[in-house]
């Protein structure tokens, strides 16, 4: 009795907490589900990282990381991906306030920076393969190309997704379903940047040390 | 109507939280912190001023700090009451990642170690 009175007195001021406000909105559920997917993706990357760490010394007499990696190129790639993560954040702010021009500018910047990252990575791979460091030449290189290539593949998927989202905003405006997809895209893009942080630290910075 | 209710529930959704200069400031703060941490990582990997054997550990600490910065400032995973499901899922994910990486390294190092003394074809130290 007392409790009921207290609750009804408190209810107007207090923000509804989980469980009190009824079922969560579709947006929150979608965000949570996509977050679970991202975490499972990160677990998959953890397996690739573990494989890389186990095999990093198995170069089969071939070149190791210190001979193959160029830190300048990795630094530029890192700057590109970090800047694209920031413009992706700016993009979600523009989406949030329904500014279409702002959305397009930020989306194009995100796309260009992501594509620059990908182009640098492909050039790096082509360079290594031209020097004979192919994925099949040692366990270390197999693990390296699997790990870094898998991240690059994710970035490629993200770029295609971003193009699709730009087309959807052009055709369908900011409908709720489009907003949810944009929200998932920004989560995906930020998560890729988190994986890249682990990647450049473990592969490129620790790898070049003797 | 139901969409305005969804908008009211936005406060618990990461990334598209609030509008205005404050959320712009959040992203910019995150960017500045991430740039500082990245620059420190690259500097530490190349400098000769620091004690060499400690550098990998330092790089690991910097990377984990930067992942934390990304989670808080870009993905907006916080310990707030509306975010507890996301934070709990993240905690479980971190546990699995830790088990996979540390477990693999431990098992494979142990396996390598116990194969060392034996002579014969099994002694190949994983040259593929």
Question: In a few lines, what is going on in this structure?
Answer:
Chain A has 210 residues and is mainly α. Chain A contains seven helices and no strands. Classes of the chains: A mainly alpha (210), B mainly alpha (128).
Structure description:
The complex is a heterodimer of chains A (210) and B (128). Chain A is mostly helical. In chain A, 78% of the residues lie in helices and 0% in strands. Chain B is flat, with a radius of gyration of 22 Å. The longest helix of chain B has 32 residues. In chain B, helix 2 runs antiparallel to helix 3. Classes of the chains: A mainly alpha (210), B mainly alpha (128). The interface between A and B is large, with 63 and 61 residues.
List keywords for this structure.
heterodimer, A: 210 residues, mainly alpha, 7 helices, elongated, disordered N terminus, B: 128 residues, 4 helices, flat
Outline the fold blueprint.
The complex is a heterodimer of chains A (210) and B (128).
Chain A: H1 2-10, H2 26-55, H3 65-68, H4 71-96, H5 100-130, H6 139-172, H7 176-205
Helix pairs in contact in A: 2-6, 2-7, 4-5, 4-7, 5-6, 6-7
Chain B: H1 2-8, H2 21-46, H3 55-74, H4 84-115
**Range of strand content of chain A:** under 5%
* Global mean pLDDT of chain A: 86
Q: Report, as a whole number of angstroms, the end-to-end distance of chain B.
A: 62 Å
Give the overall shape of chain B, derived from the CA principal axes.
flat
């Amino acid at each position: 009795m007392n409790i009921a009175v207290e609750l009804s007195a408190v209810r107007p001021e207090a923000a509804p907490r989980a469980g009190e406000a009824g079922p969560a909105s579709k947006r929150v559920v979608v965000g949570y589900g996509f977050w679970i997917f991202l975490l499972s993706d990160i677990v998959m990357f953890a397996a690739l990282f573990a494989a890389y760490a186990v095999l990093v010394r198995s170069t089969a007499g071939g070149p190791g990381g210190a001979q193959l990696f160029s830190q300048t190129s990795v630094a530029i790639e890192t700057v590109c991906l970090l800047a694209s993560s920031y413009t992706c954040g700016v993009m979600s702010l523009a989406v949030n306030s329904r500014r279409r021009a702002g959305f397009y500018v930020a989306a194009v910047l995100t796309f260009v920076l992501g594509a620059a990252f990908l182009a640098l990575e492909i050039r790096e791979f082509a360079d290594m393969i031209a020097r004979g460091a192919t994925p099949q030449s040692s366990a270390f290189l197999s693990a390296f190309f699997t790990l870094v290539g898998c991240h690059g593949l994710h970035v490629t998927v993200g770029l295609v997704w971003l193009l699709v989202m730009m087309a959807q905003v052009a055709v369908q405006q900011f409908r709720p379903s489009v907003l949810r997809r944009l929200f998932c895209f920004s989560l995906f893009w930020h998560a890729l940047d988190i994986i890249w942080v682990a990647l450049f630290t473990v592969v490129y910075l620790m790898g070049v040390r003797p | 109507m139901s969409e305005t209710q969804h908008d009211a529930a936005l406060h618990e959704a990461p990334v598209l939280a609030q509008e205005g200069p404050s959320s712009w400031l959040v992203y910019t703060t995150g960017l500045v912190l991430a740039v500082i941490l990245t620059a420190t990582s690259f500097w530490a990997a190349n400098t000769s001023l620091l004690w060499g054997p400690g550098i990998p550990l330092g790089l690991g600490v910097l990377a984990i700090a930067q992942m934390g910065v990304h989670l808080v400032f870009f993905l907006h995973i916080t310990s707030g009451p509306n975010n507890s499901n996301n934070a709990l899922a993240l905690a479980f994910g971190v546990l699995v990642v830790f088990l996979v990486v540390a477990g693999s390294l431990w098992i494979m190092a142990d396996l390598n170690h116990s194969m060392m003394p034996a002579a014969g074809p099994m002694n190949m130290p994983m040259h593929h």
